Amino acid sequence: MSLKAVLFDFNGVIINDERIHLQLIDEILVEENLQPQRANERQASLGRSDRACFQQLLANRSRIVTEEYVTQLLNRKAEKYVLELEKIEKLPLYPGLDDLIFQLRSRSISTGDSRNLKLGLVSGAIRKEIDLVLNRAKLAEHFKVIVAGDDINTSKPEPDGYLLAVERLNREYPDLNLQPQECLAIEDTPAGIQAAKRAQMQVVGVANTYPFHMLQRCCNWTVDYLSDLELERVQEVYSQKQPQPSVTEC
């Protein structure tokens, strides 16, 4: 087995925008004459798609709505997100991101051929928000395959987004013959970690959102910062005939 692809989460791994999202969700709720999020609801939303969050928040407030109505709320939030980012001179990208992407793009697969590691992105955020950040940060060229929240009907911790990313990578690179076990996911929340593990992927947990010790018990590797990830050690595990033992669910 070899490492062929690395799949990034978006919010909490690439960009530190949790505060912005929570603020905008509250604004939408207030505009709908509903109570803003409670502390436990904010915690439960971490790692889940925007659609799943709004559906749960509305259900908690006994508001029955259609899927089309939820889509309207998501579009309103995306418009607000664009306006918020326009106020920020420098995007709050996580330190070490550029260097890690450079290392991944320049590192050949340990199968003896010259192909480089493929990069993908799997997120519950809608595509409009992802494209905005990637284009502004000049990162779009690195992510040929993106699975956004509006591409699937489920949310993390379900594995559908990761499995769809494998399908799309195989379509993008017909000779890759990628299997889920040949992917490494980079996540920051229990929901995201569980989604990747249920897709039979190994996971790096980066302690941007949850404490290191909480992620350590349920990830294959855990780092405080993206710059701490030792790719050589990761690839050594993938090159072994026997896969690394599974780890505890978060």
Automatic annotation (TrEMBL):
It comes from the Bacteria. Coiled coil: none annotated. Keywords: Magnesium, Metal-binding. Pfam families: HAD_2 (PF13419). CDD domains: HAD_BPGM-like (cd07505). Signal peptide: none annotated. One of its GO terms (molecular function) is metal ion binding. The keyword Magnesium applies. Its cofactor is Mg(2+). Belongs to the HAD-like hydrolase superfamily. CbbY/CbbZ/Gph/YieH family. PANTHER family: 6-PHOSPHOGLUCONATE PHOSPHATASE, SLL1138 PROTEIN. This is HAD family phosphatase. It comes from Mojavia pulchra JT2-VF2.
